Amino acid sequence: MSIDPRHHYKPSWRKPAGMFMILGLIALWAVLVGSLSGLIGRLPMIVQVPVYVFLGLIWIWILPLKRLLSWMETGRWRRF
Q1: How many domains does the chain have?
Q2: Is 74 inside a domain boundary?
Q3: Which among 2, 52, 65, 73 would be 20 to 30 A from 58, CA to CA?
Q4: Residue span of the structural domain in which 53 resides
Q5: How many CA atoms lie within 13 A of 66 on its CB side?
Q6: Is 26 inside a domain boundary?
Q7: Where would you find the membrane-spanning parts of this chain (predicted)?
């Protein structure tokens, strides 16, 4: 099976736009979590770790970026 050389891939504008949205989201989240660091810093260390894991992994990466990455690939906010 050969690839037709006349078929050219046209990149989507969603990928660069999504990349800038991801960078903006990370910057916004870093400022927000940084502003909460004084409050979180008063908690015992055993409580700080789960709070930062939740804020860093689940709240920023899994919840919003899952849909954003799906939109970048498909053009829809939901896969189904």
Answers
A1: 1
A2: yes
A3: 73
A4: 44-80
A5: 7
A6: no
A7: 20-43, 49-69
